[in-house]
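Protein record
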Amino acid sequence: MKDRAPAPGGLALVQALVNTLNLESGADALDTEAGRGAFGLAPQDVDAARALRESLRAACLAHAGHPAHEPVRDLGELLAGGPLLVEVDGATGAASLVPADASALTARVAAAIAEALIAGTWLRLKACEAVTCHWAYYDRSPAGRSRWCDMGVCGARAKMRAYRARKAAPGTSP
């Protein structure tokens, strides 16, 4: 399950953060030292990281056309806590947005989203529509209409439920 390639560029950070919680099992990687270490988090930073994670999940669900899975804090307000700076390369003149504090997760996420906005990839980071999953995935389909993180698991389950519902409905033909 969840065997899609990671999102491109900085969106891989956003995808990895959203996917620290397995909704089906309840396992939260941020509960472990290794899970926190992957994002440079101290134990006292976990509550803020969880709030950011769930607001990002709600945005990914919105990208797929689904409502938020639970009430969440406004993502824009959370990202305001991670200021960005404009960095200009003296040799080429190329400009980019970089975190004002490279160790702050919120600033790194804000920079990743800004990079994705410029690249036109932000709206392709979606969350699986399965209510027991909501795993973040990058939609690489040509039409941008993927619905599930994994067609072999979440997609197959949804299609089987729909099939069984049709079969159980009175007055339907076989």
Remarks:
- The chain has a mean pLDDT of 87.
- The longest helix spans residues 46-63.
